[in-house]
Write a structure and sequence with these properties.
Keywords: Amino-acid biosynthesis, Aminotransferase, Cytoplasm, Pyridoxal phosphate, Pyridoxine biosynthesis, Serine biosynthesis, Transferase. It catalyses: 4-(phosphooxy)-L-threonine + 2-oxoglutarate = (R)-3-hydroxy-2-oxo-4-phosphooxybutanoate + L-glutamate; O-phospho-L-serine + 2-oxoglutarate = 3-phosphooxypyruvate + L-glutamate. The modification N6-(pyridoxal phosphate)lysine is found at residue 195. Pyridoxal 5'-phosphate binds at residues 76-77, 102, 152, 171, 194, 237-238. This protein is α/β, with parallel strands linked by helices. The chain has helices spanning 16-25, 44-61, 76-87, 101-110, 209-212, 226-231, 241-257, 260-279, 308-317, 342-359, and strands at residues 5-6, 67-72, 93-98, 115-121, 145-147, 150-151, 156-157, 168-171, 188-192, 203-208, 284-285, 297-302, 320-321, 332-335. Strands 2-10-9-8-5-3-4 form a seven-stranded mixed beta sheet.
Length: 361
């Protein structure tokens, strides 16, 4: 049976080579006689997997020595509350940029722990652009500044950072490992795995070690304390072992391709081709400021909304899966993460052209 091109925003497509390797190792991992799903997380076998994943991620992102890598359960949405719970401590305020649906959800959770200063917002512009860095309202005494550099639902992305002495905490769930970043500019990076890294069930956290001192707090639940997680090598309780194993295989696959710089070039190519097809069409359009269009999540709408269900039905039949936009905004959305090959994007473009030739005005 041939595989479809899966444009789901998450859980998203995994590299076929990774799936085949996991399949080959499923029953008997490296001669251990058991699957990774069956082995003790305290075993030497799984410890080697965990350490391999951390080492590969460190190489891929060139993570400095003064950062700790954590594998956390609960999903990135849980981190919306876990982050302020860990880092507010003696601070009274936190700063957040409001650039889309996910940053808005993070703000809502943070309000349960501190006074939230919305330092900049483009809600009035329907989240089609980003705030002006020069006009941000930043409290120098805030615990941190939280940003969401890629809004998965809206398809907005930015890669430059505001000038601030505050620790910058970034939700990179949709973009981690898709483009080059300077980890040293962040206080913390976190990313749900189910988009560019692996299956749902684990969140990668890269935390500057000086910030961990804030979370060494007896009042925090032990499984929520980043400091406690670091002290216990992410194994306070049973971690999501199989998700970490698959993440390690994805890291291995990415290294073999040439690392983040190599995949970034492919991602630039894929996004450029798809946006060119949209912009050259009379049927399709994308509302985002061209300077801030996401490379990973490409939303588009049809000039005739009545054609949407026909588009989705026919694209599904053509082997192009999960192109419906988020339920909150509608329209279409193609998520073209690292695992989506150029051939998949070309197949989508060809389908879009054919569809427009049959249904366009």
């Amino acid at each position: 049976m041939s595989r479809s091109f899966n444009f789901c925003s998450g859980p998203a497509a995994l590299p076929e080579a990774v799936l085949k390797k996991a399949q080959a190792e499923l029953l008997n991992w490296h001669g251990a006689g058991v699957s990774v799903m069956e082995m003790s997380h305290r075993s030497s076998e799984f410890t080697s997997i965990l350490e391999s994943a951390k080492a590969r991620l460190t190489r891929l992102l060139d993570i400095p020595d003064n950062y700790e890598i954590l594998f956390v359960q609960g999903g990135a949405s849980t981190l919306f509350a876990q982050i302020p719970a860990n880092f507010v401590t003696d601070h009274k305020t936190v700063c957040y940029l409001d650039t889309g649906a996910w940053s808005a959800k993070a703000i809502k959770e943070a309000k349960k722990y501190a006074d939230v200063i919305v330092s900049g917002s483009t809600k009035e512009q329907n989240y089609t652009t980003v705030p002006s860095w020069e006009e941000l309202n930043l409290d120098p005494n805030a615990a941190y500044l939280h940003i969401t550099p890629n809004e998965t639902i809206g398809g907005l992305e930015f890669d430059d950072l505001p000038e601030t002495d505050l620790p910058i905490i970034a939700d990179l769930s949709s973009t981690i490992l898709s483009r080059s970043i300077d980890v040293s500019k962040y206080g913390m990076i976190y990313a749900g795995a189910q988009k560019n890294v692996g299956p749902a069930g684990v969140v990668i956290c890269i935390v500057r070690k000086d910030l961990l001192e804030r979370s060494d707090n007896e009042a925090l639940p032990s499984t929520w304390s980043f400091a406690n997680l670091a002290k216990n090598n992410s194994m306070i309780n049973t971690p999501p072992t199989f998700a970490i194993y698959l993440a390690d295989l994805v890291f291995e696959w990415l290294e073999a391709l040439g690392g983040v710089e190599a995949i970034e070039k492919v991602n630039e190519q894929k996004a450029a081709r798809l946006y060119k097809a949209i912009d050259g069409s009379k049927l399709y359009s994308n509302p985002i400021d061209v300077a801030y269009r996401s490379r990973m999540n490409v939303p588009f709408v049809l000039a005739d909304e009545s054609l949407e269900q026909t588009f989705l039905a026919e694209s599904e039949a053509a082997g192009l899966r999960t192109l419906a936009g988020h339920r909150s905004v509608g329209g279409m959305r193609a998520s073209i993460y690292n695992a989506m090959p150029v051939e998949g994007v070309e197949a989508l473009i060809e389908f879009m052209r054919d569809f427009e030739s049959r249904y366009g005005a």
